Give the backbone structure.
Amino acid sequence: MTATSSQETFPRAPSWPYCGRDAAPDSVGCHGRSVEPHAACLAHLTDADRCTYLALLQPGADLDHRGTPFTAELLSQLLAALTNPATNGRTWATPGSTPRFSATTPPSTR
């Protein structure tokens, strides 16, 4: 998978630990939330680190990918990692929980 870069300029840092890729004098770079223990967001992790992260996701895990620039391919990889093969494609969820998705930046079109 090809890493993406943020298409927007962010002059101020977000309140969460963020990636910062492509930072410049007038921009703090990518606002994607860092995937611990890495400094990069999901979109900018190395392929090996991204694969490891996705493989280690467990039912009920808290996901926080605020500000991450998602491509269709990256979103498909994340959703595939959250799919429970025993339930014919339903995503993993803790009983009684309500998955919430919100976008703080437009999805990347790269």
Notes: Helices lie at 47-55, 72-81. The mean pLDDT is 78. The chain has one domain: 8-87. Residues 60 and 97 are 8 Å apart (CA to CA).
